[in-house]
Design a protein that fits this description.
about 270 residues, alpha/beta, five-stranded parallel beta sheet, globular, binds adenosine-5'-diphosphate
C-alpha cells in the first residue's frame, strides 16, 4: 500500500479532479486509526519544528488552497496548531490592498516567506492569481497565463534558498460544500462565517475546478509538489496534511547545533 504522501502527490501533466474522490481515505482505515495517527504526528511535528528552529538554516512553507468551506481554517486549527508560535506565522491573502496591487503579484508573497528556522502557513496564496483572477477575468488571459511560469521560477528560487514548499489543495465535492454552507446558516456559532460571496463563487464551481486542474498540473514540481487532499471527511483531511508535513520534516532531518560545553566545569560552577 502506498504511503499517504505518495498516494496524494500530483504527478504528470494532466489533472482531472473528477478522478480524485473527495471521500477517499487512502492509507487509513477509519476515524479511530486517523485520530491515533494524528496525535502521533502532532507530537512528531512538535519535536521536528524545535529542531528546525534550533538549526536555523532552512524553513518550511505550507500553502493551503481550496474552495470555500474546504477547511483551510480547520486544517490550521486541527493539524497545524502544534507549531510553536515562536517560529511559525500564518498569513491570509485577501483581495490585494492598493499597496499590494501597485506591486507585482509575488511581492506580498515573498515578504511573507519564512525566515530561516521558521514555518509559514499561507491561507490562500500566490495561486489566487491563477484562480480567482482567472475565473473572474480580472486581467486578460495573456497576463494570468504567464503566472504559472513565474510561480514555478519563484518556488524554485525559494527551494534553492533552503525553503521546503508543500502545497495542499483541499478537495471537497460540490454536495459537501452545500452541506457545509447550510450548516453555516443553521448553526448560530458558524453564522458569522457565511457570506453571500460564497454563493456567487459556488455558481462558478466548474470554472474553479478547471483553474485548479491547470494550476495543479503546471505547478506540481519536484521542488514544490502539490497534494490533492480528499477533504469531504475532515478526519482524513487533517490526518493527511499532518502526515505529509511530518514526512517532509523527517526528510529534511534538521539538526540542532552541537553545544561545545565543558559540562564538568560548568556544573562545578553552578554548584557554588
Ligand atoms: P477566506 O475565504 O480566505 O476565509 P475572505 O472571505 O476574506 O477569506 O476571502 C478572501 C477573498 O480574497 C477570496 O474571495 C479570494 O479569492 C480573494 N483574493 C485573494 N487573493 C486575491 C487576488 N490576488 N486577487 C483577487 N482576489 C483575491
Amino acid at each position: 500500500m502506498k504511503s499517504i504522501p505518495e498516494a496524494l502527490k500530483v504527478r504528470g501533466r494532466a489533472v482531472r479532479l473528477a478522478r480524485w474522490n473527495p471521500r477517499a481515505t487512502p492509507g487509513c482505515k477509519d476515524k479511530d486509526e486517523a485520530a491515533e495517527r494524528l496525535a502521533q504526528n502532532l507530537a512528531r511535528i512538535d519535536t521536528l519544528q524545535y529542531r528546525l528552529y534550533g538549526e536555523s538554516r532552512r524553513s518550511l512553507l505550507i500553502v493551503l488552497q481550496g474552495m470555500d468551506t474546504a477547511g483551510k481554517d480547520g486544517v490550521i486549527r486541527n493539524a497545524l496548531t502544534v507549531f510553536n508560535p515562536q517560529g511559525c506565522r500564518v498569513w491570509s491573502f485577501k483581495v490585494p490592498t492598493p499597496d499590494e496591487a501597485a506591486h507585482d503579484f509575488l511581492w506580498r508573497i515573498h515578504r511573507a516567506a519564512p525566515a530561516r528556522g521558521d514555518v509559514a502557513i499561507f491561507n490562500r496564496s500566490h495561486y489566487e492569481d491563477v484562480l480567482v483572477v482567472r475565473v473572474h477575468g480580472l486581467v486578460p488571459r495573456n497576463v494570468w497565463s504567464r503566472g504559472y511560469k513565474l510561480i514555478n521560477a519563484f518556488e524554485s528560487h525559494l527551494h534553492e534558498q533552503g525553503t521546503r514548499v508543500l502545497k495542499f489543495f483541499l478537495h471537497i465535492s460540490r454536495k459537501e460544500q452545500r452541506q457545509r454552507l447550510l450548516a453555516r446558516l443553521d448553526e448560530p456559532l458558524k453564522r458569522w462565517k457565511f457570506s453571500d460571496a460564497d454563493l456567487t463563487e459556488r455558481t462558478r464551481w466548474r470554472g474553479y475546478q478547471r483553474a485548479y486542474e491547470e494550476a495543479l498540473a503546471r505547478c506540481s514540481t519536484k521542488y514544490a509538489p502539490w497534494y490533492v487532499i480528499p477533504s469531504d471527511r475532515k478526519w482524513y483531511r487533517d490526518l493527511a496534511v499532518s502526515e505529509i508535513v511530518v514526512d517532509a520534516l523527517e526528510q529534511m532531518n534538521p539538526r540542532l547545533p552541537k553545544a561545545k560545553l565543558d559540562l564538568k566545569r560548568l556544573r562545578a560552577r553552578l554548584a557554588r
